[in-house]
Amino acid sequence: MKGLLIPAALRISVKVLLSIVLSEALIMGGLYLLPVELSPLHKTVVDTLLLGLIAAAVIHLWVVRPLKQAKQQNSLFNTLVNNLDSGLVVTRPHGHGQSIIYVNPAFERITGYRLEEIVGKNPRLLQGDDVDQEALAATRSAMRESRSVRVLQKNRRKNGEPFWNDLHLNPIMGGGGKVDYWVGLIHDVTATRALERENLRWASALKGSGEAVCVFDIDGVIEYANAAYCRNARLPLEQLTGSSIMGFWQRGPEFDSFIASIKQQQPWSGRHKRLRGDQSSYESLTTVTPIGDEDGSLAFVGVHRDISDMVLMEEKLRQSQKMEAVGMLVSGIAHDFNNVLAGILGNLYLIKRHLKEDPKMFRRIEGVEGQGYAAAGMIRQLLSFARQGAVDSKKC
Q1: According to the model, what pLDDT value does residue 275 have?
Q2: Most buried pick, 122, 216, 293, 356, via CB within 10 A?
Q3: pTM of the model
Q4: Domains in the chain and their CATH numbers?
Q5: Three-class DSSP category at 268
């Protein structure tokens, strides 16, 4: 940084010399204008004393005190620069490029380059092979136009490891409107950028999730809802945001349990009926989880799924199970009744053989036998129904 102080030192030296020369001229003119005659020796002594006093005063005012202040300021500046968390690099235009003249310890820590090995080098060595970035084009354009610029660019450490650099670049203007120096502040935001990319991935996954997700505060006011939640509620996000989560719950024991959990800042999960924007209801499986921020504020994340189709399938399954149970019952009864009926028909056949001489009684026995065969037909139909019910239940 000493190179930056040379022009100021030269300006102070010139001012001091001019002041002393001017003071000498004034003293000599004053001595000649005095009405008292002084010997050449006395004039020389007076001239020397006055010139010494004036020179001492001028040097103290323009040299000693400014230098003392400059030393204090320089010490403070060096302390600040050396303790910055951000890397500081100072370059000077050199030909068609830039030449590094100073870097602070933070720059050394971030890049891995030591001051003595990077002084005189072009800062482009940090770019590595990443020379096609839009940020580099923006930086070059700003330097051509001698204006400040802030860009996010990908740089390389000394060991080749990439890092994301939030660069603040500012020109230091000199005489004639030309840039004497460029001062750059570099911030290693690799971890921050990785966190931002992770947050973006999570946000993208949340938006595209098939599960309905919303965030609401302790008072139940909805702060965010994803696309699936909007579809289930049949309302746009603009209308959902700021509305109460309570308006989408059908009142009942589950709602009372949910409210109690919210007041106690406890998680809740269960199956209940939800309401859409048009007040139609649907079955839902919901989980609500409290989340806390660093400032102590509390919010809740609610995730729910429309299980209306699952409820219909459950109803069909229950009906199928009922039919299967009825079929099994009918099958058992039919088999037992068929066995009884077989015995009756067999005995009727034997009776018919002994009643051939009595036509009237024979006809009556045949009528009973016919009714028995009709009953057997009904039993076959019941058995067929029972088998069909069992087949249908397996298909379900």
Answers
A1: 92
A2: 216
A3: 0.54
A4: 2-82 (no CATH), 87-194 (3.30.450.20), 210-306 (3.30.450.20), 313-395 (1.10.287)
A5: strand
